[in-house]
Amino acid sequence: MNPERFAVAPRRRWLGLAAAAALAAAATPWLAGCERGADRPALRGIDVTGAPYGRALSLTDQYGQRRTLQDFRGKVVMLYFGFVQCPDVCPTALARAVEVLQRLGPDAERVQLLFVTVDPERDTPALLRDYMAAFHPSFLGLTGTPEEIATAAREFKVYYAKVPTGSGYTMDHSAQTYLIDAQGRLRIVLKHERTADDYAHDIAWLLRGGA
């Protein structure tokens, strides 16, 4: 598997997925206030409030800046682990994140997507810059040494493994998304199968205080 072809050729596919997400979102706007009267609307993800994991993260973004969860206080963080050469699960997750931001409208400014690579060997900062930019200018790709990635994965109970292929290797990995509230606390885990509406629903709840 040639890493260079993921730096150029798939960009059209990434852009196509992002554009499709934006169009879908425009056609089905998210009404964030539809459940404001409820004390605690039923969450679409798994409530993990108070979990003894997912409390720390320290990696480097695609611009070379060290990032921790403290940097995003005041925002809800969508945290996802994946890799650039992922054929469909990762680009689908990122395209869905674009839809989520569209549904949230002005509140999207208080949401940050963090994409942690589980393939630091191939996912260089330059490649992460291209990959993130293909979806949304605010998305941040995080990388580090193999040891740092392993530490982050353990902290969030993420599984990943290198799987040999005939021409190189691919990565097997968990596909859930973690929602971290504006105080930097892990609150919700959303499965990959959930829709953009499900994600927007739970994020909107966290933006309203999550209580």
Automatic annotation (TrEMBL):
Cu cation binds at residues 86, 90, 173. Disulfide bonds join 86-90. Residues 1-32 form the signal peptide. InterPro entries: SCO1/SenC, TAT_signal, Thioredoxin-like_sf, Thioredoxin_domain. One of its GO terms (molecular function) is metal ion binding. CDD domains: SCO. This is SCO1 protein. Keywords: Copper, Disulfide bond, Metal-binding, Signal. The keyword Chaperone does not apply. It comes from the Bacteria. Residues 34-208 form the Thioredoxin domain. Belongs to the SCO1/2 family. The gene is ypmQ_1.
